[in-house]
């Protein structure tokens, strides 16, 4: 095994897996067309925040992972000042959000809210967020559905393979998934094989666990925490939500 494997951290693997995913960016630019500033819950390595900043929107981003934020800071250091100055990061668990400012716009991107596996975590996140919102605020949730990945309902099914370049390596990515209908938990084991000259030099693995929400139960959860649903969509292009939708995009607001 190569010692270089020790410096390949989860943020790099996250970027590797999601580097080509930009289909949601235009949606946020449309939803936040009147925003001068937004609150991002789960800013990660800045996949969404940086394009928003490049379009003149100030982003305050919260994340519990110091490694993710360090990766983002490196990216900001290489951006022009008029972009980097528009991104502010806060190292914090957004289940216990505590920020000074109040926001008209907030969002949980790319299935971030699905990482909250318990009702206690979900309610803590929503209740603490509400304290940081103005009375006219909107909150956008990008949620997984049972159609987000192919064949999600089949246990032990390899959902797919991918191959990307990372420096001098070809990286083969395989994902094995398990969906537990009794808990609505969807577990993905992602295996990254770093290949050079046709030999696997080292391997990395990441396990991700998400809870799938159905629209009716999510509506009840929001109502219990003082929110109402203003609109919802099935795709980033604002198509109507249906039983076959790959995403559940919910636009909500605090109940006055």
What are the defining features of this structure?
Rossmann fold, 2 domains, 4-stranded antiparallel sheet
Describe this structure in words.
The chain has helices at residues 10-18, 25-31, 49-54, 66-77, 81-84, 119-130, 215-224, and strands spanning 37-41, 58-63, 87-91, 103-108, 133-144, 157-166, 169-180, 185-196, 199-211, 227-233, 247-254. The chain is an alpha/beta fold and 256 residues long. The protein has 2 domains: 10-145 and 213-254, 3-Layer(aba) Sandwich (Rossmann fold); 148-211. The strands form 2 sheets. A 7-stranded mixed β-sheet has the order 3-2-1-4-5-11-10, with helices on both faces. It has a 4-stranded antiparallel β-sheet with strand order 6-7-8-9, covered by helices on one side. The longest helix is centred in the first third of the chain and has 12 residues, at 66-77. 31% of the residues are buried. The model has no long low-confidence stretch (mean pLDDT 90).
């Amino acid at each position: 095994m190569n010692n270089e494997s020790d410096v390949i951290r989860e943020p790099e693997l996250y970027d590797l897996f999601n580097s080509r995913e930009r289909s949601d960016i235009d949606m946020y630019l449309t939803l936040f067309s009147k925003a001068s500033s937004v609150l991002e819950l789960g800013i990660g390595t800045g996949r969404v925040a940086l394009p928003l900043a490049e379009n003149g929107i100030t982003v305050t981003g919260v994340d519990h992972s110091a490694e993710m934020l360090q990766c983002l800071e490196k990216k900001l250091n290489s951006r022009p000042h008029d972009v980097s100055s528009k991104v502010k990061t806060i190292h914090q668990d957004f289940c216990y959000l505590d920020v000074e400012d109040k926001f008209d716009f907030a969002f949980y991107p790319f299935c971030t809210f699905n990482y909250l596996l318990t009702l206690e975590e979900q309610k803590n996140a929503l209740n603490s967020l509400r304290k940081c919102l103005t009375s006219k605020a909107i909150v956008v949730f990008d949620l997984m559905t049972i159609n987000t990945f192919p064949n999600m309902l089949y246990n032990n099914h390899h959902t797919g393979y991918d191959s990307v370049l990372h420096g001098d390596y070809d990286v083969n990515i395989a994902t094995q998934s398990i969906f537990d209908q009794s808990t609505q938990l969807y577990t993905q084991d992602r295996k990254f094989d770093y290949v050079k000259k046709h030999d696997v030099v080292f391997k990395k693995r990441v396990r991700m666990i998400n809870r799938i929400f159905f629209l009716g139960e999510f509506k009840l959860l929001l109502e219990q925490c003082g929110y109402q649903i203003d609109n919802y969509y099935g795709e980033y292009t604002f198509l109507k939500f249906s039983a076959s939708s790959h995403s559940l995009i919910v636009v909500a607001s605090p109940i006055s």
